[in-house]
Backbone:
DNA sequence: CTTATTAGCCTGTGGTTAGT
DNA sequence: ACTAACCACAGGCTAATAAG
């Protein structure tokens, strides 16, 4: 990730509400109050009355004076005027026109001003706020008098605006509360220096069943033991080595939760040579052998279990090489499909006869870093070129195996300094992809903006019975309990301070506050270094004793 | 105008050296 | 002996530039 010096993030930290509500109530009703507070807001009236001749800027100064702790945010954001109406489920945010006075404001929106402050980052973040009948769903609508409605009206999705301040934890909670098998992928860009963060992610921030990683940069002589995570097994791993230098590059690895490991194994089918990919099979049928055998006796149905085959792929950059690798992946898929023979095959490809009662279907989830920006490629129309060939190869892969790509948002953001300027250009790409041939079984999918590397984590929750899921949704312990749990399980560099820094960093990247993200990244590095130093000193002291 | 190549920027890693 | 700082290197990725 490139360093960033300019500001890309403009938080909406402060809203002014016309305080037209009588009887001393700050809010139109308790529901609004609850909804705002759940969303991480607090409120305060401007004391000492208002001078109606104040301009908005003067009002801002007044608010700054009253809220010195929020000076920085106010300086960045200015103030926006918001209107909340009794019994309404919306907050209308109006962009203020400089030079307008309080009187102008009140003429349009009613008398009195209520200041709504977004609380600091330490707001409670653990639980995803649920919609209830009593608590209205607060939506933000931005209105500006200067622009046509069609241009400026931004009606947000519940996930973005209902989300608490810590967007990442919110995203992780959505993942955790989905049923089924939770499969995630992250391009970690070296696992060696992120072992502890991975443990933290797996043990107390998520409930992932199958964690796939790419760009692990592991060496062949690196033991699995040094990368072990309590509660998880490394089921498959493939290291990449540079042909020229012999240095580690690329590499894929798949962790599987121990509870799932008894029904999971590394796929026995060999993928094509040269493809950086590993495959893990998860047995889905959980009815027990006896029942299946009885069923078989009664109906003649097959005894094979239904499988979910999870393929973790890394396609390094380089258009020509990628075409070769994508073709290899396609051939590997053919090989895998060929091996999926039903116990009673009726076709040349071993596909089950649909008339015949059989539950041994194999479904596929293929995920990884493809280094192919699906959004750019979708726009590429120049066939016959190398890029065109790449598009064609990817399309062929998708169509020949009926694969659907689930990830819609950007999975990597890069910021580059523009030549000869002090400004930075932001490039977003969708290169971490999740494919499946059974979209009906996908319970949830998406992107989690964790800041472990410049790639984000992508995931899907997969379950045959979408209503039940395979397991119950997990409820996370509180932040403190989670950290205690983590501490007891793991001997690591991460202490409470680093834990908090990581959370802050993830929040920063989610709201694209790149300056803070960079700063926190450095802080984490220093803090971890200091931890190591302290550990060594302690060990030394123990020895001398 | 499109495509391919290359330069540049960034990262992590590991070795060397100077200082404590 | 240990640590911190520095440097070189390889790899990943993008944007600029050259070539067709």
Residues:
């Amino acid at each position: 990730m490139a360093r960033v010096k300019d500001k890309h993030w403009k938080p909406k930290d402060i809203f002014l509400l016309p305080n037209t509500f009588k009887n001393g109530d700050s809010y139109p009703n308790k529901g609004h109050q609850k909804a705002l507070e759940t969303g991480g807001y607090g409120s305060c009236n401007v004391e000492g009355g208002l001078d109606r001749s104040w301009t908005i800027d003067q009002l801002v100064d007044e608010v700054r004076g009253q809220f010195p702790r929020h000076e920085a945010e106010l300086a960045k954001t200015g103030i926006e005027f918001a209107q909340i109406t009794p019994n309404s489920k919306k907050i209308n945010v109006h962009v203020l026109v400089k030079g307008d006075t309080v009187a102008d404001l009140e003429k349009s929106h009613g008398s009195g001003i209520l200041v709504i402050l977004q609380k600091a980052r330490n707001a409670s973040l653990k639980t995803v706020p649920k919609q209830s009948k009593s608590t209205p769903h607060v939506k933000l609508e931005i209105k500006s008098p200067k622009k046509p409605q069609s241009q400026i009206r931004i009606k947000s999705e519940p996930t973005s605006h209902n989300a608490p301040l810590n967007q990442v934890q919110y995203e992780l909670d959505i993942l955790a509360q989905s049923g089924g098998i939770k499969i995630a992928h992250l391009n970690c860009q070296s696992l060696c220096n992120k072992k502890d963060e991975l443990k933290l992610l797996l043990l107390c921030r998520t409930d992932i069943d199958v964690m796939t990683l790419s760009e692990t940069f592991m060496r062949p002589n690196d033991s699995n033991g040094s990368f072990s995570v309590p509660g998880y097994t490394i089921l498959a791993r493939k290291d990449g080595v540079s042909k020229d230098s012999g240095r580690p590059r690329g590499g894929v690895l798949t962790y599987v939760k121990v509870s799932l490991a008894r029904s999971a194994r590394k796929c026995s089918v060999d993928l094509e040579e040269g493809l950086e990919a590993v495959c893990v099979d998860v047995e889905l049928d959980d009815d027990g052998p006896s029942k299946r055998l009885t069923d078989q006796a009664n109906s003649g149905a097959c005894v094979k279990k239904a499988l979910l085959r999870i393929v973790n792929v890394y396609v390094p950059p380089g258009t020509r090489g990628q075409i070769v690798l994508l073709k290899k992946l396609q051939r590997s898929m053919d090989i895998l499909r060929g091996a999926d023979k039903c116990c009673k095959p009726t076709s040349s490809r071993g596909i089950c006869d649909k008339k015949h009662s059989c539950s041994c279907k194999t479904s596929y989830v293929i995920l990884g870093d493809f280094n192919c920006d699906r959004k750019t490629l979708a726009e590429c129309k120049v066939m016959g070129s190398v890029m065109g060939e790449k598009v064609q190869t990817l399309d062929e892969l998708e169509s020949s195996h009926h694969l659907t790509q689930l990830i819609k948002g950007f999975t990597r953001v890069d910021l580059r300094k523009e030549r000869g300027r002090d400004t930075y250009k932001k490039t977003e790409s969708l290169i971490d992809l999740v494919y499946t041939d059974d979209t009906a079984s996908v319970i949830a999918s998406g992107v989690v903006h964790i800041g472990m590397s410049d790639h984000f984590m992508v995931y899907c929750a997969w379950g045959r019975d979408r209503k039940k899921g395979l397991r119950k949704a997990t409820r996370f312990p509180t932040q403190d309990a989670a950290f205690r749990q983590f501490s007891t399980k793991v001997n690591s560099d991460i202490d409470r301070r680093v834990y908090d820094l990581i959370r802050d960093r993830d929040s920063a990247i989610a709201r694209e506050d790149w300056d803070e993200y960079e700063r926190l990244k450095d802080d984490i590095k220093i803090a971890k270094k200091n931890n190591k130093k302290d550990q060594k000193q302690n060990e030394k002291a123990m020895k001398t004793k």
In short: Chain A has a mean pLDDT of 63. Residues 189, 215, 217, 242, 244-245, 247-250, 316-317, 371, 412, 414, 416, 418-419, 425, 427, 429, 454, 533 of chain A lie near DNA strand C (CB under 10 Å from a C1'). Residues 514-544 of chain A form the longest helix (31 residues). The first strand of chain A starts at residue 14 and ends at 17.
